[in-house]
Amino acid sequence: MTAYAVAHMRQATMGPQIVEYLHKIDATLEPFGGRFLVHGGNLEVMENDWPGHLIIIGFPDRERLRDWYDSPAYRAILALRTANSRSDVVFADGVEHPHKATDVLK
Fold it and tell me: What is the pLDDT of residue 106?
């Protein structure tokens, strides 16, 4: 089942370390089938407040997502982001098609 790394980047200091992180992250994703689905951009806030940026990276499954996050290549650059930004990061599984809202009640 497809899995997603979802980040709400509330604040980032766009300095040399974040730039280095951005230059290096794609190479860490490739071996695990990860790809950006949403990477910042223009959000249209419909309810409440959303300070910052939204990032969603899709992976073929939760195992490859965890393997990417725990990989030596990603761990080598992780501090470039965490030391220069405030983010909430979660992992989420996708749903099988067809999925109805009431499926969560089962």
Answer: 86
